[in-house]
Amino acid sequence: LLMIDAFRAAGYSAHSMPLGDFLLASGADKLSPDQVDAAFKTIHPYVESEIPVILILFPPDGGHAVVVVGHTWNANPTVHRTVQVALSGTCNLAFSHAASFVPTFIVHNDNAGPYRELRGIDPYDYSLQHAAYAIPLLPADVFMSAEEALTLPLEILGDLFRAFVQGGMSEQDAQQLAGRLTVRLSLVEKRKIRHWAAIEPMASELKEQLRLMDLPKRLWVFELHLSALYGAHEHAAANTLVGLILIDSTGDILGSSVLLMHLNLPALSAAVPH
Fold it and tell me: Rounded to an integer, what distance in angstroms lies between the CA atom of residue 38 and that of residue 24?
């Protein structure tokens, strides 16, 4: 609590995120592999937003803290971390999470030096498996966490895919379509959104909205990408973006915080209604 108060006094909107219950579990001293995967997905949006994240670690030799400042990259992961969205009472959709392409985080460690790799599981060094809490240093004018922001577009995707099924798509086809998509969330400054809209080719209506509509200083931006091409998305020739949802980071009521939604899902499958 003292650390959180110090960050807030320094002008950050810091909050503590538990990464697992291993400290409370009798005899357990580290995160499970599933909890490690969940931690990657929890921390990823902040790192993508260039927001440092303090990790509180409890390795066997005592407590420590490191600062996550970046991540490495794997363009072709063999196993994907997913986010689950309920399609029906007996069927879930599994969307790939952009953290799937992140094999390790980059941390500053005052014990070992800057720009060190932090793996998910490492028997010989600090790893995410030893993390108990993550503290992202959000700007003071951001009132919505990444965890809160992510719930909105996932609800929208659930509603959308249920509408596809009601319109005649089979649940299996809906699952296959979701399996082709990767979700990414990041906090972006309004000026960068405006600049992106000015230089990138896109539908004229979308370009006009992004350049002229009223926007807060910072927005949570939810992106939907083609998984097969996402690994090469840094190359200009790979156009992977098929969905965009802008969320007001200063919003107090989640349900009214979506500012803009643009989806191009009909281009993915003939079974998707326009």
Answer: 18
- Residue 238: per-residue pLDDT: 62
| DSSP class per residue in 211-263 | HHS---SEEEEEEEEEHHHHTTTTSTT---EEEEEEEETT-SSGGG-EEEEEE
Question: 131-145, pLDDT tens digit by residue?
Answer: 999 999 999 999 999
Classify residue 196 by burial, with Cβ atoms within 10 Å: 0-12, 13-18, 19+: middle
Other beta carbons within 10 Å of 210: 22
Q: Which amino acid is at 3?
A: M
Direct distance between the N- and C-terminal alpha carbons of the chain, in angstroms, rounded to an integer: 50
The token duo for 168 is 């005649």
> pLDDT tens-digit profile of 55-66?
999 888 888 999
Q: Is the pTM higher than 0.90?
A: yes
Nearest to 67 by CA among 57, 52, 51: 52
31/122 Cα distance (integer angstroms)? 12
Contacts of 235 (CB under 8 A, 6+ apart): none
pLDDT tens digits, one per residue of 193-212: 999 999 998 889 999 999 99
> For residue 262, what are the β-bridge partners?
244
- CA 213 to the chain's CA centroid: 25
Task: Kindly write down the DSSP assignment for every residue of 69-89, as one continuous string.
Answer: EEE---SS-SS--EEEEEEET
Task: Evaluate if residue 74 carries a pLDDT over 70.
Answer: yes
CA 209 – CA 214 distance, rounded (Å): 9
DSSP classification of residue 271: T
